[in-house]
Amino acid sequence: MPRNYKRTSDRQSWSTESMQKAIEAVRDNKMGWLMASKTFGVPQATLRRHAEAKNKTLESTSKGLGSWKSTFTPDIEKQLVQHLKFLESRLFGLTRTAVQELAFELAERNGISHKFNVQKRKAGQEWLEGFLKRNKDISLRKPEATSAARAQAFNRPQVQKFYELYGKLLESINFRPHRIYNADESGLSTVQNPQKILATTGRKQVGVITSAERGINTTVVCCVNAIGTFIPPMMIFARKNMKNELIDEAPSGTLGVAQQSGWMTTELYLKWMKHFQSFVKSSTEDKVILIVDGHASHKGIETLEYAKQNGIIIVCLPPHCTHRMQPLDVSFFAPLKTYFNQAISKWLKNHPGRVVTQFQIAGLFNEAYGKAATVQNACNGFKSTGIWPLNPEIFPDYMYEPAETTNIPLVDEEAPHATTFNDISDAQTIAFTQPVDNPVQSTSTSEYPSSCTLAVPLEEISPLPRGRFISGQGKRKVKARQTSLVLTSTPNMEEIKSKSKPKDPPEKRRRQITKTLFEEESEGDISPQNVEDDEEDCSCIYCNDLYSRSKPGDDWLRCMKCSLWAHAACADVPKRTKRYICEICQ
After folding, report:
1. Strand 288-292 to strand 180-189: parallel, antiparallel, or no bridges (unpaired)?
2. Residue-wise pLDDT tens digits, 345-400
3. Residues β-bridged to residue 256
4. Residue 112: exposed, middle, or buried by beta-carbon count in 10 A (0-12, 13-18, 19+)?
5. Domains along the chain?
């Protein structure tokens, strides 16, 4: 049958729904044949034939469309659509080819007559196009890559725990939206992500100019409150020394710093915290909430003490949930990077023969920042994450479906530190780091109802994804330090301080190591020597393992020419070789 078949006749143009209603009206003696025919727009003769079931080859409301008929019944196709939707909700969606192969297996194993390709063992392209036309609620989409950690971490118990504690925090101090801030970092590269362009049809490769193969990363720290007021950003350049020329064209008030890797560190975050406090003017009498992710640089002891002294309550989002729960990630950074890429492409066109360096980043960022940092984007970010106005039920059920694949109960090994909101005045930072205990049962529809029409159900042909765990470990164990706690409370501050203290060096011990010593003129003997770890140390020229870390029984050989040491096993020579020369000297 052609993919875009056009009927040449208007026969059987009535709908099956109208025919069903007309049959019910006649059988219930509500209408006669003629009135039902005119009321529902169906032919009278056809209505009589279907109502009296004279056509034995068709159902009461189905149509006879000549020799062509669909491979699967509408009920089976409905089950197939539900199966595809369920797999997509678990982040295991099927491609076009996988759907064609599934349709072939479904027909083969259930004994359904079909015209699919037996050699390729899959349904044809015509069937797939017709299947998509008959089922408008599914279509071909390009998925967004989601890591397994994000899929498992964004679960209902963890999200509900966060909003429960955050809601109590809002009630305890009665915060207004202009005192609720969100801060986050993002990287900007000197090499833009190319956008689609118009080019010659049929050309295999279409290029666009970039500054280099790999760009230099610059980290920007942005911050905004729930009413759309932005704090001047901070820019971290990947270099040792900072030059004021780097931020000449940056947004007004930008704080520029240099760091060799270009990433945020604990020291730089403390500097940004002081920059943040200089604009919000917070104090212990007029506190602010700062919502951040759980990056290690945000948990430095000096930063926490400074925040506590200046009335800054730092609330950490649950791990691997920022893609849905952080306002800046949801509504700001995507348009910012889009405008930034456009600015780079425009700059390269206006400056042919030149490349974008760190000295142009500030000006390009300023152009993109001015377009993306709008009140509407900021307010939409807080609203769509349920942070302001507070809405714990902002996320629909299907967003929790990926976590159901590995959903197992949680058990605490130890009782966690007690966290109460009566201590908010003393404890300024609340962290939500790992999934919580007592999970709430999901109300979403993870299993769709199966039908009895298939001898071999879809669940057997295409198994539903479920996590598998090692026997004896049926329940996930969570350590006490990984539950929700107040970082700046007294016990936790003491714990952080104890961890920051340098550890005592390990006790030195004497080991019996066999070394083979030789001189160029005479043959040496193998003699065991007691050597301390810090007295004589060298590394194997093959594996770079240190002599001080050798295990008892390891044999070492020294080259007669370069006097370098090597494991006898690494050199692949007998342990009692009298004259050893390494491969380098050979």
Report:
1. parallel
2. 999 999 999 999 999 999 999 999 999 999 999 999 999 999 999 999 999 988 88
3. 235
4. middle
5. 14-65 (1.10.10), 74-134 (no CATH), 149-194+213-431 (3.30.420.10), 511-571 (3.30.40)
